[in-house]
Every structure is written in C-alpha cells, then in structure tokens.
Automatic annotation (TrEMBL):
SMART domains: EFh. Keywords: Calcium. This is EF-hand domain-containing protein. The keyword Calcium applies. It comes from Ramazzottius varieornatus (Water bear). One of its GO terms (molecular function) is calcium ion binding. CDD domains: EFh (cd00051). It comes from the Eukaryota. The keyword Transcription does not apply. Residues 87-122, 132-167 form the EF-hand domain. PROSITE patterns: EF_HAND_1, EF_HAND_2.
C-alpha cells in the first residue's frame, strides 16, 4: 500500500522496482506543504482551464463548453450548451463572491488557497460544502467517467492519469488505495464515493488520507510542469 514519507517531502514509499519512476519527477519545495500542493493541483486541473496561472469567468465558460461537448458526445445543441454556460457562470459568480477578495474579476491561487484554508475549519464532509463547489466536484466526475456509466474503473483512472502525464506504472497501486468496503469487490468508484474522495483530497491535511490519490500520484508529475505553473501562478 502506498504511503507518504513525511521525511522525504511527502513522496510515497514505493517498492524498489518503482524507484526509477521518481527520476525527472517533481521535487518542488511546495511538496513539503502537501495540503497546499493539493490545493494548487486542484486549482490547475479543475479551475484554470487555459493554464495561465489564474481563473476567471472565461475559464468557467471554457469548462462549461468542455462538459457540454462531452454530454452531447460531440454534437451541438444550442439549448444544452447555453444551459451549461449559464450554470458555470453562476458557479463562477458564487466562487468570486467567496474568494475574489480584491474584486478584480480574477481569482489567483493565493486567493483560492486562502479560501480553501478558511473553509477547511468549517466543513467536515462533502455535504457541508457550498452548493457551487459541490456542483463543480460532481461535474468533474465526468472527466474520469469515460463511458458515462456512473462508475470509475481502473482503466478510466489510468486514462485520466495519462491525460495528466503521470506515471502509469503507479496507477494500479494508487487506485487500490481509493477502494474501500463494497468498492473493493466492485472494483469501481461511483460519483458519491468520488465526491467524498475529492473532498478528502482538497481538505484533509493528513498525508495518507483516503483521497490522497484521487487525482493521481502527484509526485510523478514532471518537475518542469510544476515549476512553470508555479511561476505563472506566482507561487
């Protein structure tokens, strides 16, 4: 079972056969503050659609269009596209009211991290989150659920990691850490379980909590990717 070694910048303890996978991977000082690193990864992967280091309403419209295309399987239905855009514009407005502290129409990582840190002291489960944040996480499930059957299996998880340029040799071990109880027999993660795991990923300060690997083995991300993004985000 994967475990984070807090004496080694929170990089998981892996078998000797997998040690080589660390080469060329992230050794960012940010990994020493793993909760902050997770907040950055969520910000980069979920909120900042164009990857320019901050998020704004335009990013949310981009995200809306991606989900609309996925829902319509590539077809164009104006009413559905408009519905997705409206919904994401509403989510943006709610997030901006909560996190855009200087009201400049842009949310930086620093503002996002401050919001997450404040929210962490107020929430105990996914159900406690503001509605807009719950919707964002629920919608993010579709980025994993390739066949739209309401379940994430190991193959879909591996595809998601591939899209993030993570080490696929770690996928099976990481996925197993996410399965509990009935999940283990079923071998899949449903949307409710995904939301709980994503909540844990974003808000837990424990290095070996249940949702640690829902976004993949972050230690396998190439250091250049992290260095470039932290520069853009002003971290």
């Amino acid at each position: 079972m994967l475990q984070f070694d807090t004496n080694l910048l929170c990089i998981p303890k892996l078998g000797a056969s997998k040690m080589s996978s660390r080469q060329g991977r992230t050794s960012s000082p940010l990994m020493s503050d793993f909760p902050r690193f997770k907040a950055l990864w969520f910000f980069k992967s979920v909120l900042d659609a164009d990857g320019n280091g901050y998020t704004n309403e335009e990013d949310f419209v981009r995200i809306a269009l991606v989900h609309a295309v996925m829902f319509c399987k590539g077809a164009y239905f104006k009413d559905i596209y408009d519905m997705y855009i409206r919904n994401y514009q509403e989510m943006w407005s709610e997030l901006a009211r909560a996190a855009d502290t200087n009201q400049d129409g842009v949310i930086t990582f620093q503002e996002w991290h401050s919001y997450v840190t404040t929210l962490r002291s107020r929430v105990r489960s996914f159900e406690d989150l503001p509605e807009f944040l719950k919707k964002m996480i629920e919608n993010h499930f579709s980025n994993y659920d390739e066949n739209h059957d309401g379940q994430i299996d190991i193959n879909e998880y591996r595809l998601y990691l591939c899209g993030k340029n993570m080490d696929l040799k770690l996928a099976t071990d990481c996925f197993q850490t996410l399965l509990t109880g009935k999940d283990q027999a079923r071998g899949t993660i449903n949307k409710k379980e995904f939301c709980a795991l994503m909540f844990d990923f974003l808000f837990s300060t424990q290095p070996n909590s249940g949702g640690t690997y829902i976004c993949g083995p972050l230690q396998s991300v190439k250091s250049t990717v992290i260095d470039v993004y932290t520069h853009l985000a002003g971290v």
